[in-house]
Write a structure and sequence with these properties.
heterodimer, A: about 260 residues, mainly alpha, 9 helices, B: about 260 residues, alpha/beta, Rossmann fold, about 25% strand
Chain lengths: ~260, ~260
């Protein structure tokens, strides 16, 4: 086989996939903003994405905050800069770990569930049935998930930020013998609005990407149980990669300001 | 309505998936109020034909006219208006498993017609009654139903909006002979009482003989024979003869490797 042809084929396949995804995203956003919208469906997805993700995101956040305090203590102790621990914990949580870890956990939990549900609807002809019943599947299935994902991830990250800082506080005060008041003052002292806002912007982008990947791979799944399984895997993997990639891009956009 | 215009008129329909040609140059008329059954082997493109008419698949060439209007290029609200004329019973019923049974039947009323939930529920329960299911079934989840009950719920959903045309995709496949006959009776009852045009696809000859006014056979992407159901035994076509008698030997060669 001609190796150059193979490279070309891969490249064309990549372009076709990118185009398909862009068209899908455009259509989904169009239907998300154009009435009619379904508040009942959006509400159900918000509960599914937000409320039911609280335990897993909370657990991730508290242990991340705790380990951050411990790790930065072992590092900063060598320079006698222990007072910077509180700042390190709160900046790492709000700017980076809160959105990224919450995003990855929600991608695994919710993105997979979306791909499996929509994929099953595809292979059992339920999506065709929606169309024949004069209901646009983009409006009924995709738009509510995109809206709910984009709204709920920032809210989840706010909770994760608070819980993560609390985790750092618990370790610092109860294990490393910091004064509680001094620790909290250090936490506030160098925190700026932009630190939190940049994290929440990331979270909104991640929520959108998770829902988009879940819906896209579910919507295009083919061939029975195996196809749905592939769709689920692809949704989680592609959402995770997009989260990490866009995380860098958003950080850079905020960093240069 | 002008009786001279067929309800559905298909001319030169072609559809391929990559190199695989499924339908080619297919012509078919369905007159208003008749029940046409399309028979054909597995993989002969029967489902693709229905999906092309409904616009679930884009056709490669040809026209599909419904009430004299070409529908192959309709978009947006015009397509919605067209789809309101149709009801479809899917092969696996395609019930929404996130909704209760009555919500499934009421779905086209609530979503399509913006009917109030309470009123839609009454209509849904009446339609469930029409297919022989009690109000207690309405509260169940689709996952709790047997195959025959799912088909009946699917039928109730297809007739909920009182469509002009109903498509039946293999209505009896996967059912025992008695339940299959119950479904056939329900189809007859619904189509006769409502005076709808019915287009069914099946490979179950008992079902075809019972519900059809007219039968058409799909083979090699074309309609190779059609005629009133009474004449099917004297069809004079070797392909149709082989199919209706279910013989492995004949002009139709299934893609089976002979060792």
């Amino acid at each position: 086989m001609n190796p150059i042809a193979a490279i070309g084929r891969v490249f064309l396949f990549f372009l076709a996939a990118t185009g398909r995804l862009a068209l899908f995203a455009g259509s989904a956003v169009f239907h998300a903003v154009k009435p009619p919208i379904y508040p009942r469906l959006i509400g159900r997805q918000m509960v599914e994405i937000g409320y039911f993700s609280l335990p897993v995101v909370g657990l991730t956040a508290i242990f991340s905050g705790m380990v951050l305090a411990l790790q930065s203590y072992t590092g900063f102790q060598r320079f006698e800069a222990e007072s910077a621990i509180a700042t390190v914990v709160v900046l790492s949580m709000t700017r980076e770990l809160g959105p990224v870890l919450a995003g990855l956990m929600v991608a695994g939990r919710v993105g997979a569930a979306m791909a499996a549900e929509i994929g099953t609807m595809r292979v059992t002809e339920q999506i065709d049935a929606l169309t024949t019943l004069s209901t646009n599947p983009f409006k009924y299935l995709v738009a509510p998930r995109l809206i709910a994902g984009t709204i709920m991830l920032p809210l989840l990250v706010m909770v994760a930020d608070v819980i993560g800082v609390m985790g750092g506080y618990l370790v610092a005060v109860h294990k490393l013998d910091f004064g509680p008041i001094a620790y909290l003052e250090n936490t506030w002292e160098h925190l700026e609005t932009q630190d939190v806002v940049s994290g929440l912007v990331k979270a909104a982008a991640f929520g959108f990407l998770i829902a988009l990947m879940g819906c896209y791979h579910g919507y295009h799944s083919r061939g029975g149980a195996q196809g749905v399984g592939n769709a689920t895997t692809n949704a989680v993997v592609s959402a995770s990669i997009l989260i990490l990639t866009s995380n860098y891009l958003i950080t850079e956009a905020f960093f240069s300001r | 309505m002008n009786a001279a215009i067929p309800k559905i008129r298909i001319r030169g329909l072609a559809k391929s998936f990559g190199p695989k040609v499924v339908l080619q140059n297919l012509d078919l008329d369905v007159t208003s109020g008749e029940s046409l059954v399309v028979i054909g082997g597995s993989g002969s493109g029967k489902s693709v034909l229905l999906k092309c008419i409904l616009g679930l698949l884009e056709v490669d060439a040809g026209t599909v006219e419904v009430d004299g209007i070409d529908v192959t290029r309709l978009r947006g609200s015009q397509r919605d208006a067209l789809l309101r004329k149709f009801g479809m019973l899917f092969q696996s019923a395609a019930l929404f498993d996130s909704l209760a049974v009555w919500e499934n039947v009421a779905f086209p009323l609530i979503q399509g017609r913006r009917m109030e939930r309470r009123a839609a529920r009454d209509v849904a329960l009446a339609k469930l009654g029409a297919v022989g299911l009690g109000a207690d079934v309405g509260a169940l989840n689709p996952a709790e139903l047997s195959g025959g009950m799912r088909k009946r719920v699917g039928l109730a959903r297809a007739i909920a909006c009182e469509p002009e045309i109903i498509f039946f995709d293999e209505p009896t496949t996967g059912l025992d002979p008695i339940m299959a006959d119950v479904i056939n009776d329900l189809i007859l009852k619904c189509t006769r009482e409502m005076g709808v045009t019915a287009l069914s696809i099946t490979h179950d000859m008992a079902s075809a003989r019972k519900i059809a006014n007219r039968v058409a056979m799909l083979h090699d992407g074309r309609i190779i024979w059609h005629g009133p159901v009474a004449t099917i035994d004297a069809n004079g076509n070797a392909h149709v003869d082989q199919f209706i008698h279910g013989r492995a030997e004949g002009p139709i060669q299934m893609a089976v490797l002979h060792p």
